[in-house]
């Protein structure tokens, strides 16, 4: 159908790709001016690509981004925590403080399951029962943990019973405060109070 | 833009999934456009574009940041599109006789699925016609024509996307243009 030299078709494509030499371009133009058939082919090619190139831009549906994010594999929880920590430095510090503090409190709360009593010379200890004998005076504060305190005599100080029971005979005299601690929050409060007391009373001890 | 993209990629590599959302937002329209032009179907195009982004996310550690991200992303998407097109193609023999019919073969069954009667084509609106003509191209030529004349990418970049030598890309563009000219006849 086409008797024209084969390289003319090749030149047409080279021209459309923009990599034709000046000399080849001249040769092509000269041929197209003289050959109606090739001119038609050249026009057909140009029209075809112009037509395709006039395609209106297509935009993605709004659901696309959301869909991608939903289809992503779950990220490691570690990354999520790290990001949260980066975003909320102050809250992170506060949370860290609370976690560490509560850990200290609860571990000491849990570990103190065994019976203990503050040491005073005239306290009588029988198994888990601590007795302040009648007619005796115990000097200083008494602290009993996980045990029973029976007071028949006199205590010259505070009495604290943690996780235990306290019985006072009619003859009992306690000059200081008496306290019974059973719940976790009481326990924490007690811990905090005694910590504070230690802090404030320590300089006094140094003076002595 | 490449700097910004690489910055976000590094954040994704550190495990920050939100940074990937920004990448998706940046490239969604271009990627969807390529998929839509390849597949001629909005639903499938969205599905494949999403799949391409998911694969990019999973394999982000294999992306070489010295290269162009769009090239890498388009490669994933065009491969998925070509797979999808091949799966849709019937694998029965077209000239096999349809059982229970005399002299009726598969050609007569699908005659109007790919090619429409001329009167109908002439009634099409311009945009509809453009997509129709692209869809009629063999997929080998369809991908290069889309990347060349809709995405307006240089030939070298098309070669990088399709993993073809420059010479092959040129040949396919030439044949694609030729096929378009022939199938369109005179406009």
From TrEMBL, chain B:
The keyword Transmembrane helix does not apply. The keyword Iron-sulfur does not apply. Residues 24-89 form the RNA polymerase sigma-70 region domain. Signal peptide: none annotated. Residues 128-180 form the RNA polymerase sigma factor 70 region 4 type domain. Pfam families: Sigma70_r2, Sigma70_r4_2. Keywords: DNA-binding, Sigma factor, Transcription, Transcription regulation. It comes from the Bacteria. NCBIfam families: PRK09641.1, sigma70-ECF, SigW_bacill. PANTHER family: RNA POLYMERASE ECF-TYPE SIGMA FACTO (PTHR43133), RNA POLYMERASE SIGMA FACTOR SIGV (PTHR43133:SF60). Belongs to the sigma-70 factor family. ECF subfamily. This is RNA polymerase sigma factor. It comes from Sporosarcina soli.
């Amino acid at each position: 159908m086409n008797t024209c030299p084969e390289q003319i078709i090749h030149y047409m494509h080279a021209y459309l790709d923009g990599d034709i030499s000046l000399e080849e371009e001249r040769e092509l133009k000269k041929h197209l001016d003289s050959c109606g058939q090739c001119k038609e082919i050249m026009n057909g090619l140009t029209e075809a690509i112009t037509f395709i190139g006039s395609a209106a831009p297509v935009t993605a549906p709004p659901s696309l981004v959301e869909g991608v994010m939903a289809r992503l594999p779950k990220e490691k929880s570690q990354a999520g925590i790290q990001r949260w920590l980066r975003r909320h430095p102050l809250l992170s510090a506060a949370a860290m403080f609370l976690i560490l503090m509560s850990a200290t409190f609860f571990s000491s709360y849990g570990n103190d399951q065994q019976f203990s009593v503050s040491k005073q010379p005239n306290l009588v200890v029988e198994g888990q029962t601590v007795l302040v004998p009648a007619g005796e005076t115990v000097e200083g504060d008494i602290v009993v943990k996980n045990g029973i305190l029976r007071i028949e005599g006199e205590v010259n100080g505070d009495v604290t019973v943690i996780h235990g029971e306290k019985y006072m005979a009619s003859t009992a005299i306690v000059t200081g405060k008496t306290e019974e601690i059973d719940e976790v929050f009481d326990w924490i409060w007690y811990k905090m109070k005694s910590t504070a007391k230690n802090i404030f009373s320590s300089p006094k001890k140094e003076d002595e | 833009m490449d700097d910004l993209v690489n910055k976000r990629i590094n954040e994704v590599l550190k495990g920050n999934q939100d940074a990937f959302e920004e990448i998706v937002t940046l490239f969604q329209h271009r990627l969807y456009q390529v998929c839509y032009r390849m597949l001629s179907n909005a639903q499938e195009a969205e599905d494949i574009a999403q799949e391409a982004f998911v694969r990019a996310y999973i394999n982000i550690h294999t992306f070489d940041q010295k290269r162009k991200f769009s090239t890498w992303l388009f490669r994933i998407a065009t491969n998925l599109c070509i797979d999808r097109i091949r799966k849709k193609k019937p694998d029965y023999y077209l000239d096999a006789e349809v059982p229970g019919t005399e002299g009726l073969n598969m050609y007569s069954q699908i005659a109007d699925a790919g090619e429409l009667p001329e009167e109908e084509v002439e009634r099409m609106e311009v945009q509809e016609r453009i997509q129709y003509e692209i869809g009629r191209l063999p997929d080998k030529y369809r991908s290069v024509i889309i990347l060349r004349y809709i995405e307006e990418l240089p030939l070298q970049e098309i070669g990088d996307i399709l993993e073809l030598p420059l010479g092959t890309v040129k040949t396919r563009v030439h044949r694609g243009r030729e096929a378009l000219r022939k199938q369109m006849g005179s406009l």
